[in-house]
Design brief:
The structure is a single chain. The protein starts with a helix and ends with a strand. By secondary structure, it is of the alpha+beta class. The radius of gyration is 19 Å and the shape is elongated. The strands form two sheets. A nine-stranded mixed beta sheet has the order 4-3-5-6-11-7-8-9-10, with no helix packed on it. The relative contact order is 0.12. The chain contains five helices and eleven strands, in the order αααααβββββββββββ. The protein has helices at about 5-15, 20-25, 30-40, 45-55, 60-70, and strands spanning about 75-80, 80-85, 90-100, 115-120, 130-135, 150, 165-170, 175-185, 185-190, 200, 205-215.
Length: about 220
Amino acid sequence: MPKLGSYLRKKRKLARMTIEQVAQQCGITKQYVSEIELRGLIPKKEKLVAIAKSLGLDPSHLLRMAEFDRNPEVAELIYGDVVYNEQLPMIPVIAWAQAGQSGFWEDPYPVGQGIEFLSRPAEIKDPNAYALVVDGESMVPRLNPGDRIICTPEVQLDDIPSRSLVVVKLKDGEVMVKELRRVDDGLLLHSTNPEYNPVFVNNSQIEWIHRVVSVVFH
């Protein structure tokens, strides 16, 4: 389970910000930021929210991480209508999924690593579950750019119902997020945005299809 301090340190470096810059933006000292990153200090809510804004992160996500660090024995935390299981690994966001004309999945992070982490809904047990960031507008209004989609490789194609959201990788390397529809000789990858045409593929063109099991709206 990623700790808050190490997560913030990684995100700060990705943002190309120094400890001093974060401290100045948040009205705190450099030592305070260092204590959070290196010694596991859990900041007060208002300071953590300020840090989240300075790094362009979701404050609610950091608050959940902080709560878990304070109470690691707590198995489930309930936020709104979703139950999160904090004893299972968080779900890594490993790449971008194209919701447009075409896209290619380049240099995804290895399993268990990612550009950020999402709290795991309790019903998702697959240890290989991962998340992608939606890029493009072909799935509007069902999905919007910046939404995070959580996918599971464990669901077989034959068990994926028609009209489910899926991430498809073709053998030519193209990766897209679409709505799956079954037709006689193959699959129709449907866009919910009427400005985009559906894509027909047959099984010989497909490298893999993973079902989208949850969406974190941007």
